[in-house]
């Protein structure tokens, strides 16, 4: 009997990352719960949920702005469990700023987390993957589909990760490794409920009026798609950007 698969997930203390850790644990995958030391959310909560799901998890502090830190994340999982089969590049930040006010520092900070951090996570995981491996990068409808005023740096980064996933799918396909992007719509996460940089709770509630599904999404609904893409059942799905948005981006507004 082969050893269980191993996943490295960044931004796994809350939101989509935490939900993904639980979804994968339910499927027998060992999960590396990557968490940024400055994140106010408690990764122990994710670990408890993983254990409650009958899974095995390991909390690892990781700063996706650092190549050394991300490489150490993957190396720790290999040391503990002997392999890395799945990489989910989920860690990200969101900051509001009008384009004419964005400084070079603000622009580069956004890219360093939301684009370069995704690249570092994929690269670290791929170094250990064999046939059947899977990389999933998290984009957004902002950049992945739409533009978003006062968020040009965020949208640019999120558009970039889609191109990254497509290129990795082509480059690593001959090795039997898949790469895909998820484009979440409006999902109720700590990031989207930030009233300063995003819609906030009231804005999310109003969004249900124009989403065909009648509500915003839940992290679990995105995580289920990530878990499918990470599984053998998605063995011929690669290079795709899959929108999970309750038909928001396909609806004509009145």
pLDDT < 50 runs, ≥5 residues? none
From the N-terminal CA to the C-terminal CA, the straight-line distance is 56 Å
What portion of the residues fall into strands of 2 or more residues?
Answer: 5-15%
Can you list the strand order of the major beta sheet? 3-2-1-4-5-6-7
Percentage of residues in helical conformation: 40-55%
Number of helices: 9
Gross morphology? globular
The biggest beta sheet is recorded as: 7 strands, parallel
Instruction: State the total count of DSSP E strands.
Output: 7
Element order: H for helix, E for strand: EHEHEHEHHEHHEHHE
Secondary structure category: alpha/beta
Radius of gyration: 17 Å
Integer average pLDDT: 94
Characterization of the model:
The chain is of the alpha/beta class and 254 residues long. Helix content is 41%, strand content 14%. It contains nine helices and seven strands. Helix 1 links the parallel strand 1 and strand 2. Helix 1 runs parallel beside helix 2, helix 1 packs across helix 9 and helix 3 packs parallel to helix 5. The longest helix is centred in the middle third of the chain and has 21 residues. The radius of gyration is 17 Å and the shape is globular. The relative contact order is 0.14. The mean pLDDT is 94.
Task: Map the helices and strands.
Elements (H helix, E strand, L loop, with lengths): L5 E4 L5 H12 L3 E6 L7 H10 L4 E5 L5 H15 L4 E4 L14 H11 L1 H11 L7 E5 L2 H4 L7 H21 L5 E7 L15 H8 L11 H11 L11 E4 L10
Parallel strand pairs: 1-2, 1-4, 2-3, 4-5, 5-6, 6-7
Helix pairs in contact: 1-2, 1-9, 3-5, 4-7
